[in-house]
Design goal:
Number of strands: 7
Structural class: alpha/beta
Shape: elongated
Number of helices: 5
Order of helices and strands: HEEHEHEHEHEE
Distance between the termini: 43 Å
Strand content: 15-25%
Strand order of the largest sheet: 1-5-6-7
Largest sheet: 4 strands, mixed
Radius of gyration: 23 Å
Number of domains: 2
Mean pLDDT: 92
Helix content: 25-40%
Length: about 170
């Protein structure tokens, strides 16, 4: 009796796999809180703030992704955040206004935007679900929204065990 060769059906399948770990944003993420620069914790005084900006060693933010914001309910003029952004720009990898969560969302959005969805036109795509790095749920949501108009089907998991997410109607 002749033995049938072992065939790796997953390797031969038409599925295309995407691993979001390959798009993990680079650089450390830090939050720059300007609350310590407020007079009596409530008011931003222009002269004092400008002195802080001038004397700060911005090079310590070299290569980092920075979110600037204020942890108190103080009213901070927009120009203050603009001044911080222009001071950080020569050093930081990326600067935005908001929280660390806001920063992460923006970085993931940028990464997802680098994906050319037309490359997945009419393909069956599996988005890998497990990996070494934690991927936020919103990254999967952003990816699904980006790919859905192009793919014939979208699945989550591993090629050998997927959860159907979307299938284009014929």
């Amino acid at each position: 009796m002749k033995e049938e060769p072992i065939v790796n059906r997953v390797a031969r399948s038409p599925l295309v796999s995407i691993d979001l770990q390959e798009f993990y944003p680079e650089g450390e993420c830090v939050w720059l809180d300007i609350a310590p620069q407020l007079f009596q914790g409530m008011v931003l005084r222009e002269k004092d703030f400008r002195e802080y900006v001038k004397s700060e060693d911005w090079s310590r933010y070299e290569g980092k992704n920075v979110a600037v914001g204020c942890s108190t309910d103080a009213i901070v003029p927009v120009w203050a955040y603009m001044l911080l952004a222009t001071s950080l720009a020569p050093y930081a990898r990326y600067v935005t206004y908001g929280t660390l969560e806001d920063l992460q969302r923006e970085l993931w959005q940028q990464q997802i935007d680098t994906i050319t969805p037309q490359a997945y036109q009419d393909k069956k795509v599996v988005v890998k679900g497990c990996g070494e790095k934690p991927i936020p749920e919103y990254a999967f949501t952003l990816l699904a929204a980006r790919l859905q108009p192009y793919v014939s089907s979208l699945m989550y998991g591993e090629p050998c065990s997927t959860v159907p997410i979307y299938k284009r109607k014929k």
